[in-house]
Structure formats: C-alpha cells, structure tokens
Amino acid sequence: MNLTRKILSSHLAKPSDMKAGSEIFIKVDHTLTHDINAVMTYLAFEAVGLPRTQVELSVSYLDHNLLYLDHKTPDDHIYLQSAAKKYGVYVSRPGNGICHAVHVARFGKPGKLSMGGDSHTPHGGAIGMLCIGVGGMDVATAMTGVPMRLKMPEVVNVRLTGKLKPGCNAKDVILEMLRRVTNKGGLGKVYEYTGEGAESLEVPERATIANMGAEMGATTSIFPSDENVRKFLKAQDRENDYIPLAPDDDSEYDSVIDIDLSKLEPLCACPHQPDNVKPLSEVEKRNVQQVFIGSCTNASYSDIAKAALVMKGRKVAENVSCTCAVSTKSIYTQLLRDGYIEMMLDAGVRFLELACGPCCAIGQSPATKGVAVRTTNRNFKGRSGNPNAEVYLVSPESAAATAVTGTFASARDVLGDDVKILADIREPEAYPISDSLIIEPLTPEEATKVEVVKGPNIAYLPVPEAPEENLTAKISLKAGDNVSTDDITPASAEFSSMRSNIPLMSKYCFHRYDPDFAERAKNLGKSIIVGGENYGQGSSREHAAINPMFLGVKCVIAKNIARIHKGNLVNHGIVPMLFENPADYERLEQGDTLEIAGFPEQLKAGRVKVVDKDKGFEFWAKPDMTDSEVEISPDGGQLRHLRKQLEEMGIITKGE
Ligand code: F3S
Predict the structure, then answer these.
(1) Rounded distance, CA 426 to CA 303, Å?
(2) Atom 1 (ligand 1): residue with closest C-alpha?
(3) Residue 491: is its pLDDT beyond 90?
(4) From ligand 1's centre to the CA of 295, what distance in Å?
(5) Domain 267-424 - what CATH class?
(6) Is residue 366 a contact partner of residue 290, using CB atoms and an 8 Å limit?
(7) Which terminus of the chain has a lower count of CB atoms within 10 Å, N or C?
(8) Does residue 214 line the site of ligand 1, with CB under 6 A?
(9) In sequence order, what are the residues at sequence separation of 6 or more whose Cβ sits closer than 8 angstroms to the Cβ of residue 269?
C-alpha cells in the first residue's frame, strides 16, 4: 500500500474497498481551527449540545487577525478562548505563531489524521500526517466524534530525485508542480512525495510543498516519516512522538510525476493565479513597490536565515517597502540568537507580529497599482487588500534579493557564486521550546464551571431551510472561471472581524467581485448562482457559503466546484450542481428565471432538469454530492442533519 492508503485504512470507520471516487468514512484524531474562521465552528459545536470535544486533540489558534481595529476581533478572541476552555480544546494564544507551523512543531504526530478549518491544513503532511482542510461545520462535526465522509482520492506519486541548488527553495518545487498540474489539476487527488529528493528535504521544506498542494485543489499532500522527521521532532523535544512510516516498496499509485530537484531554477507565480508560473529570470524587471517575507508557507528558520544572508550588508532599495513575519515564537527566538533578525533589521526590513497578517490582507496592502513580491501561497486579485495591485509569489531567497535590488532578482543575481553559502543553512538541532502561550484544556469537571463569553460581535449562526419542492428563482450572479472564496467573502482586518456577525458580513458578499451582488440577492429573496470552472477555489472559509445562503441563494450551478467549498455549500443548505453539458453555461445570463420542479426528488435521482423560463430552453445538471451528502439536503444542512444523527445514536436527547 502507499502511505495515503495505509493511514486512511487505519482510520476507516466502516469497511470499504477504498476505490478512488467512492465515499469513505474516517475517524479523525486532531482538529484545528483559527480565529477568523472558527467562531461559527464553536457556535455550531455548542448548538449540537455535547459537553466536550470527542477527538484526541483539538486546538484553537488565535493567529490570523491580531490587529484589533475595534471591539470585534478582541470579542472573537475572548469568545474563542472561553469556548476552548468549555469544550476541552487547547488554545494557542496570539503571538505563539501561525497555526500550521505551530501544529506541526508542537502537536503533530506521524500517522495521525487531522481535519482543520483552513485550506492549508495539509502543511502537516511534512511529518507523515494525513491532514485535510475542511470548512468550519465539518470541524464541528469531527469534534463530535462522528466519522467524517471523504471521497476516496486518487494517489499520485511525486518522485523527487536530485538536490535543490543553493538559491532554490522548496517553494520552487511546488511552483513547478503548479506549473505542470494547474490550479484545479489536484482535485480529488493526494500527492505523495517520495524518492531521494524527498529524503533530502528538511521538514519545513516539505511543509512548504505540502502546504501549497492546496493551490492545486488537492485533497492533501504527504511525505514519509523518516530520519528527517525524527530529527525535527527531536529538535522539538518530542522524539517520543516519532514513528517511521513509508509506502511499501511495491506500492501502487494512480499516476506518477517525476521532478529532478537539481534541474529547478528560481520560479515565480505571476498575477493573479498561483499556477501562472514563469522562470523568475523571465519576469519583466519592473520596479517593485513591496516585498513581504512570511506566512505559513515560507517563514521557517531556514527560510528567514537564507533571506537574511542575501540581505547581509545590503540595504532594502528605496522604492521597496519590505516587511517580514516569522511563523512561530520559537523560530523567532532562535533567529534572534543567531543574529539573522539583526541582519534584516540593519538592511531596513520591518518586522511584523508572528501572525498571518499581510497573507490575508490584515495590514500591509500594496499601493495603487503596486507590484508586490511575496513568499505567501496565493496571489488572487484583491487578496492583498488592493484589487489593482499585482502580486507575485517567490521563495524567501528570491524575495530578499528582490528587496535589495528593487526589481525581480534571484539570490544568485545578488550573491553570485557566494550563493553556495545558503546551502550551509540547516534547521536547528534544538529549537528553543517554550509553550508559555499555549493554554491546556481544563478537566471535564472544571470545564462545567466555565462561562462562554459572547461580546456584541458574536451574533447567531444562521441555519438554512430544506430545499423547496418546486424552486423558481432568478440567476443573481453569473460568475466566470476561478472565482475564489476571497472573491466571495473578502479578507482584511476589517472584513475578517465581521465574520462572527453574518447579518453584517453578508452585506459584503462578493464585495470586490460584484459590489451590487448583496443588495441584488437580498432584493430577489431567493436566487441561483451560475459559476464557471473551479468555482470556490482557495481558502476554506465557509462564510463563502453562509453569506450567500443568508442572502437567499438556493443553489450553485457551475462547470466544476472546488472540494472544500462544495462541502461548505452542502453543509449550509446550498445545493451544488454541475452542468451536464458545460456549453449550457454560455446560454445563461444574470437575471434569467430558472425553474426546478420536484427538486428534492430529482436530487435523490442524481439528475436535475432546469428550465430557463425567460429563454424557453431546458438543460440538465448533476448534483455535485455524494450519497450521504444528498441525505443532508432534506434536513436543511449539516447542523440539523448532525443533530438528527446524534439523536438517533442516543448521544444527545431530542430538543436538548
Ligand atoms: Fe495564515 Fe496565510 Fe497561512 S492566512 S494560515 S499565513 S495561508
């Protein structure tokens, strides 16, 4: 068996032949949430009525929005901290670091299966964990101990040979993958990295690759648990958590990709998609306005140390605003001790909080039509907070070289043959360990005394209705290809702080994509969204489903829908459907009236006839749902469905 199948089969809750594309049910070991997505998760868990998380480990990270612009975000953080105490959940407080980097360092264990309310949860695949990004309602469901549904993925073996040259980074490996596979090529797939090239990569390098598998739409990515994982866990003073894990020698895979690491050159994802990849040397040498070095993807010890060596003794060019956010407190401490922070400060870099920050538009938006170069994982139009900026994604070494030259440059462009000094940078043999910003769960008895604190920013969790028998509704939006959840629910310090208040947040639904959408959908009362390819790609934020649902959207009909967003639509009572004939997309227009007769019955039958009443034609759509997801719709979404399941199992009492 390959490694993915080994871990999945050891977590099966029901027997299955695990055929790719079939639905499997799995037990979850870890759950992870973060502050700007989690309030709805814990409100849902509270509404289910269980006293405590039922999985081995749940962690609530306060790491994304640390800019307290007004009362809203502190209200959220106080709520999340108190809810964690009530429900037996660890808290990683603001300042401890970015969720994925902290989780892999302090909690992750090879062979475990985790579900996190963030699309970059697969980061943990670096240590041989199977980590899957899902929506917040799915995390709440996992916390009840109910087995989770998953479409059995195909498993792709990525065979890595050779060794990265100095000046090349694991970022260049995943950009090469994106160049080949595209931003939707990973749908329904797990990428399993093996070979001597994989062995040569340290855990944070593997994490960069696993993390950005999300940009290909993959279910997850994973590396074997080997000597490098043992070394990493030992450096975290957790060697006892190490177990070796590898695919069998005669493993079968659905397909194979070969990459020779020694042939890679520094790459760059150009605006406005992570798969728009070119060799960095071919990017036009324009003036760069902003450089940001940070994020869960590329702010490890080695990443920052290499960036510092590129900048050592040089100055950030005067046209460039350069900021850096290290991923964890522990790494920051070691970088300080080793003098790398001082090198960057001397060069003119401004250090930000140990948080996501600019990655999700929480501060440091680029200037008007600004060219921004970032080490983050997404460059969707507007994700930086400024829709007319152009964001390019590169490695930390390339970002540092760009910052000091003022235009696109690689580490070799700056260091020449001295670029080889970067090869000497390795991860520390022992990280400075201090869990002073981690709050451990209370005992069940102590937890009963905890009051959950809900400030005025914590509104209610809207619950959808079951689909109507006969649906007649207008198309409120005809969206193009690659609409991201950032387009549907914009990020920024201001918008993120509204996510606990759906009546308020829903007013900004599609705000940057189509500013009139929210008003239009609300006035229609009920409506249908039509989408192109890869609808709902990107972040796992379930608000991209909750807000349209709140505005009366009943179904999305698209050419295809990204995995996590599709799950969120189902959970929040919006029916996801795919055009049987994608050419029908062209015939539809915003404002057309569509009619679906006998909707629930047609959903069960797996084929839905849709009539365009205005244009007088009909077409067929296919529910993009598994058998068990089809059962959720008549209950009016996952929360009601879950309560029903738990009542039937005798775990909670009806009406509790
Ligand atoms: Fe945070 Fe950006 Fe990663 S928002 S979790 S640093 S993708």
Answers:
(1) 10
(2) 356
(3) no
(4) 6
(5) alpha beta
(6) yes
(7) C
(8) no
(9) 175, 178, 275, 276, 277, 379, 392, 393, 394
Distance (Å, rounded) from C-alpha 513 to C-alpha 481?
12
Give the residue, out of 64, 292, 353, 496, with the most ligand 1 atoms within 8 A of its beta carbon, to mutate for a pocket test: 64
* Domain boundaries defined on the chain: 267-424, 471-639
Among the four given CATH numbers 2.60.40.10, 3.20.19.10, 3.20.20.70, 3.10.20.30, the one describing domain 471-639: 3.20.19.10
Q: Which residues of 436-447 are buried (b: 16+ CB within 10 A; e: fewer)?
A: ebebebbeeeeb
68 Cα: distance to centroid of ligand 1 (angstroms) = 18
- Same topology, domains 267-424 and 471-639? Answer is no
* Of residues 293, 296, 273, 278, the one with CA closest to residue 378: 273
Whole-number Cα distances in Å, 512 to 183, 484, 495, 503: 21, 11, 12, 18
Instruction: Give CA separation, 215 vs 249, 261, 376, 529, in Å.
Output: 29, 20, 11, 23
Residues paired with 156 in a beta bridge: 191, 255
Exposure string for 521-539, b = 16+ CB within 10 A, e = fewer: bbebebbbbbbbbbbbbbb
Say which amino acid occupies 4.
T
Tell me what percent of the residues of the chain surpass a pLDDT of 90: 95
pLDDT at residue 654, as a whole number = 76
Which atom in ligand 1 lies closest to the alpha carbon of residue 378? 7
Give tens-digit pLDDT for 226-253. 999 999 999 999 999 999 999 999 999 9
Give bridge partners of residue 343 from the DSSP assignment: none
Q: Is 540 in the pocket of ligand 1 (CB under 6 A)?
A: no
Distance CA 64, CA 33 (A): 11
- Helix, strand, coil in percent for the chain, rounding step 5: 35, 20, 45
Q: Running DSSP on this structure, what letter comes out for residue 443?
A: P
